[in-house]
Write a structure and sequence with these properties.
By secondary structure, the chain is mainly beta. The chain is 7% helix and 27% strand. It has one domain. The chain contains 2 helices and 10 strands. It starts with 47 loop residues before the first strand and ends in a 15-residue tail after the last helix.
Length: 255
């Protein structure tokens, strides 16, 4: 899949300011509803986000090489991963996956389905330049359709996949939960294993408008471990001297 161009797939002005996005453990626990439904054996927890207007949005970083349920979460909105494995991970893969979750009927009472809203996913693949998000609609971008879909009753790893963008559109009228686990190496960066600071955002909008209903934003730092305490993390990131902001493919197992 080719790289996405800035705002090329965004409808109704979804290039919203990232300053408005939410950055704290989703639901106060870091757990999304109903569970992590992609793949199998992928643990819940450590998601940054919010539940607003009965719409739950969560984002997190997860260690990919070696694959593990390791998040190195600072309890706010930053995830840090070991840059020393950049010599052993595949050259076309980042050491971390970034994972998003959206549930448009978190309390199970509204009956709303995914098709009732608009969405914007933002990322920056260059950790050495300034803040410059690229935005896509994760449900209409061609080739990006294998999200895990489910309901509030779907068990861990029990999400269903669509086989095409057309099928995804149909399924969005049936399900209220969607999740994805992606890697910069799946068409989102020409050099996905650079160390530095990446950022991601996910926003849900009222259908056909620019009214923001729920959102999340995270930073992912690829830096030497051990992971510092939250109070000192900013010092480590500053020492990197790299500013940047940071999508694709669901991990089948532990990644």
């Amino acid at each position: 899949m080719t790289l996405f161009s800035k705002c090329a797939f965004v409808a109704v002005g979804l290039c919203a300011s990232v300053a408005t996005l939410h950055a704290a453990p989703v639901n106060g626990t870091g757990n999304v509803t109903p569970d992590v439904i992609f793949g199998s054996g992928n643990a819940n927890g450590s998601f940054t986000g919010q539940t607003a207007n009965n719409i739950e949005v969560g984002l997190r970083g997860k260690q990919r090489y070696p694959a593990a349920n390791t998040f190195n979460y600072d309890g706010d909105h930053t995830y840090t991963f070991d840059s020393t494995v950049l010599t052993t991970n595949p050259s076309n893969r980042s050491v971390f996956n970034f994972e998003w979750s959206v549930n448009v009927d978190q309390n199970g009472l509204s009956g709303d389905k995914l098709s009732a809203y608009d969405y914007s996913f933002g990322f920056d693949t260059d950790p050495t330049s300034g803040v410059s998000y690229t935005f896509i609609d994760p449900f209409t971008t061609l080739g990006y359709f294998d999200h895990a879909l489910g309901t509030n009753a779907t068990a861990n790893g029990g999400g269903i996949e669509s086989s095409s963008n057309a099928e995804l559109v149909t399924n969005m009228g049936v399900f209220n939960v969607a999740q994805q686990s992606s890697n910069l190496g799946f068409g989102f960066s020409s050099d996905p294993d650079l160390a530095g600071l990446y950022s991601f955002s996910f926003s849900v909008f009222e259908k056909g408008t620019q009214t923001l209903l729920s959102s999340s934003t995270i930073n992912v730092a690829v830096a030497p471990l051990p992971v510092p305490e939250p109070a000192t993390l900013s010092l480590v990131l500053g020492a990197l001297g790299l500013l940047g902001y940071a999508s694709r493919r669901r991990a089948k197992r532990q990644g």
